[in-house]
Each structure stands twice: as C-alpha cells, then as structure tokens.
# Entry
Amino acid sequence: MAKFSWKIKSSSTKSKARTGCITTPHGKIETPAFIFCATKGALKSFTTIEAKKINTQIILSNTYHLMLHPGSKLIANHGGLHNFMNWDGPMLTDSGGFQIFSLGHGSVANEIKGKKTQYLRDKSLLKINEEGALFKSYLNGKNYLLTPEKSIQVQRDLGADLILVFDECTPFNVEKKYTEKSMKRSHRWAKRSINMFNSKLNYSPCYGSSGEQCLYGIVQGGIYEDLRDESIDFNLNEIKVFGIAIGGSLGSNKEEMYNVVNYTSKKLGEKHPIHLLGIGDPIDIWSLVKQGIDTFDCVSPTRLARHGSALIKNKIGKININNAEYENSSKPIDKSCNCHTCKNYSLSYIHYLLKAKEFTALYLITLHNIFFMNELMEFVRVSIKKDQLEEAEIEWYSKS
Amino acid sequence: MAKFSWKIKSSSTKSKARTGCITTPHGKIETPAFIFCATKGALKSFTTIEAKKINTQIILSNTYHLMLHPGSKLIANHGGLHNFMNWDGPMLTDSGGFQIFSLGHGSVANEIKGKKTQYLRDKSLLKINEEGALFKSYLNGKNYLLTPEKSIQVQRDLGADLILVFDECTPFNVEKKYTEKSMKRSHRWAKRSINMFNSKLNYSPCYGSSGEQCLYGIVQGGIYEDLRDESIDFNLNEIKVFGIAIGGSLGSNKEEMYNVVNYTSKKLGEKHPIHLLGIGDPIDIWSLVKQGIDTFDCVSPTRLARHGSALIKNKIGKININNAEYENSSKPIDKSCNCHTCKNYSLSYIHYLLKAKEFTALYLITLHNIFFMNELMEFVRVSIKKDQLEEAEIEWYSKS
# Structure
C-alpha cells in the first residue's frame, strides 16, 4: 500500500469542507474531485488524451459492462485498462453490483436520485443469495454469476488504482428489514472481497504493470440511521480499507439524500478519502463538499451532452441546446468559459449540428461539460483553501 | 480577383503531374491537394480546429444541404460559413446540382464511380427545364426551385472562397443526345451563374467579411470526346473563370474514368487549377495526379470512418476494423503512421469501441483517415518536386 496515500491539506472553518490529495501509482488526485464515467472504457465521443488536456484527474469504468464485453481477460492481455484505453492517470472501477441491481429493474439509479418509480426486479437479475448475484447478460442472454471473488478478480484484471468491494445496492422503497439483511450480507461480501484481494493467487497479468491497487469499502444502511451507524462501524473498525464510499439508497428525494450524506459523512472522520457513489450534479457539489465529500462520480456531464444539454453556471445548471431559442444565437454556451467549444463555436452552430444529427455536436458539448466540471472542482478547491467556499458559491453563479 | 492566384511551381518530366499553389483570401492551398467534405458544415465527429492541426488545407461544403438546413441566410447572418463553423482556411462550395441529380435517383454517385445501377429519377427531382431544377426537400417535402441565380446567391451567402457554376450532372447511361442537350443547357447555366456572380446587387452580408470569391467552371460531355472538346472550348474560351472542374459522367468503370480524365485534363493546360469532382480514393490519387489533376474531393475518408474502415498503405487501401481478426490485435491501424490514433490506440481497442457502439471509435478513425490523406498528398507533392513520383508510389506501398 506504499504507493497510496491520503492527506487532508486544508479544512473550512464554516463547514466540513476540506481539500486533500489521494496519491496513486498513476498520479495524484487533488480533492474535492469529480470522477468522469468512461462506463465502457471510453468517454463517449471523446478521447482520454483530450480529457487529460482539459485537466481531468481521474476516470471511472464499470466492471459490469467490461466483464461482459470485451471481457476482462482481453483487457488484461493488453496490459490492463490503463493501457487498453490509453489513460495514464488515476482510475476507479466499481464492483459491478450497482449495475446488476440497477439494470435488474432499471430504476435504482432514479430511486437513488430521489425519483419515485416502481421497484420491479426484472428478469435480468435472476437470483441473489449468499454466494452472489446471478444475472442474465444484456448482450447475449447468457447467465453470469457475480460473486465478491469474481468482482475482485475482474477488477484485478482491469487494474484500476481504486477498486470497490462487491455490494448489493438496495433501492429506497424496500422494507427496513430487507435493507438490514442486505447490509449484513454486503458486509460479509466486503470481507470476502478483501480476502480475495489479499490472495496472491489472484494477481492478474496486468497487476504488475499497472502498479498496486487499493480497496474502498461501502457504507450501506439506506435511510436508517441505526443501520448507517452499524455500517460505519463495520467499515471503520472491522475491515481495513483505503477509502470509504457512501452507497446504498440515499432516500427518495434530495432532502433525504443530504440527510443521509450528512449523517454518514460526519462520522467517517479524516482517516479515509470519502467517495459519494453516483451523485454529482453541479448544484449538488456545492452542498456536498460542505458535508466532507472528497470525490464524486456521475454520468451526467457525458450523458447530458449526448442529449444536447450543456452545463452552465446558474441554479438550473444546464441548457438544452436543442431548444429553438438557440437557433440564431451567435453567443457561446457560456461567455465566461474558456473551453475550446465556447471559445470557437456558437450556440447557433451547435443547435444546427444537433438538428442535423452531426456527431461533432456531441464532441463539442462533451468537451464543454468535462471542462466545466473540472473548472468547477478547481474553483471549489481554491475556495476551500482560502476558506471562502460560501462566497465562492455566490461568485460562481454570478459568472455567466 | 486580386486576392486569388494560381501558380504552377514544378512539373514532372515523366507525366503531366505538377505542383502548384492556389492563393485565396483564407490562405494558400499547396497542390495536388485533397479537399475534405464537410457536407453539412461539419467534418462528422471531428472539429475544424482539429482538422487544421493535422494539416488539412481546404474543406468543401454542400450548397444543397445547407440551403435546406439551416438555410443560407442564417449562415450569412453569422458572417458566413467560415465564421459559422469556425474554419479559417480556404473553402469550396459546390453548386448544389450534383446532389439534386444524385439524390434524385440515388445512383449518380455510384454511376460516376463506375458502378452500374439502374438510372431512375425518383420523385425528389420533379422537373428540369431551362429555368433550373425543381425538387422536393428530403427534410420536409417542400418543393424548391434551384436555378443558376439561386445557386450563386446561396454560395454568396455561404461565402466560400472557391464556388462552382450551376450544372446538371448527367449519369453515364443516358443517351449521347441527352448528354449533349444537358451539356449545352449547363453551358447556358454557367453563363447565367457568371452574370449573377458579377451582379453587385447580390452581394451577401458575409461577402465583405469573408473576402472575395472566385468561380470554377465545369467541363461536361460525359464519355464522348467530341462533347468534351466542345465543353473544354466553352470553359477555356467562352467564359472567364478562375478554375476548371471536370464534372459530368466519367463512365461506367475505372478505365473509362481514367480515359475521360486523361482526355480532358491534357487539353486544359496550365492557366487554371484543375479540380476533379467527387473522386479521391488513395489508389486513384497516384494515377490522377499524373493526369495533371490539382485538387480532389471525396467523402471517402470520413464516410469510411463512420463504417469502421481505416485507410492504409496498400493496394486495397483500407481495412475494416469491425473484422474479428482485429479483436486481439495490440497493433495500431498503421505502424508507420504518426497520427494521434496510431500513436495511442490499438486495433483491439478501436474494434471493441465499434462493437460497443462508442462514438469515440468514429472520432479516432476519422482522425486517422484525414491525417492519412494529408500525409499522402504531402508525400505526392514532395515527390513531384523531386521528379520522383513513380519511385514514391512504390515506396508508399512498402511503408506499412
């Protein structure tokens, strides 16, 4: 673990906001940081080298997608995911659990973010038991069993710097009894993940070339404070992990999400970098760094771009460039933005490209959205260092 | 016309190959040059600034597509197409004729390139008469009349440096009688185009900002030598144009195409830069520069990329990266290529991205194909200057 370290560099006097630095074999991550989702090993219409040029610190790829296609062994044979996708910076992989349970009924992601939808486990998730989760591939219909051991083996093959223990991500509307049962099983799965991680038998071909890896535990417990307490205690005292992620259900609306994060993060202390799984709209960033969150991941910057939406500095947070109001606008997306897109292309041009279904539109908006998030996080970090986070938030929204 | 000039810089002693330079208000074009198709005002998945970085000299956009959407007035109001798409280099627009007649039955493009298909004018082309061509928009079903005057007005609005007279592009399998009738009408249309071009009433808002424009005439006549002679005489002696394009039907196979180009180009002399419309596969470039062709345009580099094919230095000229043989290949597309894609990404990764339908694949292959064509043209120019074109062709194919 010598190649990894975590250090808090400065703290706010008005909130739990803090800056820090996670050191990995592929470089440092200045926190608070945003982790961009290269779900299937690509940043949608964008390249890893372009992303690095615009100050992207760390990307995330998904164990679930990559184990199904192209398969972790193929990636291991190419020296790991860093080499395969030519990303030489820090990388995180999730455990695959979230996707199995999310794609299983198609609504976990929405539920976590507070959108009430019917909880229906669809046929792609066939069975969960002590062993693991049996599911049907969305690609070829074949059955796969994902266990803690298998998840860690795949993550070893992929070779990301930061990897996650295998867990079940419970939706918000299951009973407390199920949330508790699931949490306890996820704790047992965490121990099995760690055992597998420590087993020298399972080092993969790329392990040597991509350096050491380190594990994040996951705090479960849904919206129930006593369960969160139990899971916090488990992660802090019963297992030894480098980082801690806040997972599971964060409630059915933003207020519950903030409550769960606040309750959980204040008990997690300073020993570990704290990651919040799957949340990262710009407007949330301001609130959640004040809760002591160090890293965020969210598909929104790239997903919004694919749907024609660009991030901007107001409380709504985005504009849909498909809208007719932009047809004749010679302005950039954001006049205060220094990205390649805003410096060179008008809303009118991008609106036209979207309507004409030209791929260049996706590239230009993706570039802006990634640049925007990196600029936001840098602005947040500088503000915390100056202990002026609250003033910075007001300034941010007055920029555009 | 002071801002435009054409100069031959060197000539081969073994063929009619020559290097030259076309000067425009937006910069110089070293010839022989390849003109990339930004059909709808975008280089498919790529940006104009990226294209410039990899030595792209000149791009082409299509009057037909842009007049229908977003409309030439909108583009004029943004200062012309150079400003709208942020391309500050030389640009050519076609007259719109080719698309009307091509999309009219969907096979002109294939016929020109020697693929025999049934000649059927479909309902989108409603009528051709002395006035112009009446067609139905592929976007909204509305009827449009494109005339020489309208084509020039639209091209004035777009503001490209090099613009074309309006013509009918006859397919190869019409009778000689129709080819002759069409040619004579196209000559009358050329005169009307020039009159319109010279009419000060029709200068568009962007005309001032984007500098002067200059006209290319088009040699018609299909595969018939006497008709080609008549059209050559018309373009050289009856009208005054800056450049001359070889258009119309080039026959039903490559041999006929080479014969038509050879017959026509040798009579066109040195006074004008000679453009060959719609032809530009790498393998054709070597033969056609020997016929004295100065500029080429073809959709193939970007279109091939969209279908997963990359240009390579052999007689077949391309590989389809979708093929299973590339699934595990850690090699680049072309080990002798210095493009960003070949220096950073393996065939295996690009193959995977294509299968996973990740847009990044299109970006990476488009980048390679544009880089490849620019490298090829530079290699050809240097070889002509050294008077070693024949040796260079052999060397080119031994590179990869």
Residues 360-385 of chain A form the longest helix (26 residues). The domain at 5-31+62-298 of chain A is CATH 3.20.20.105 (TIM Barrel). Chain A has two domains: 5-31+62-298, 307-400. Chain A touches chain B through 37 residues (CB under 8 Å).
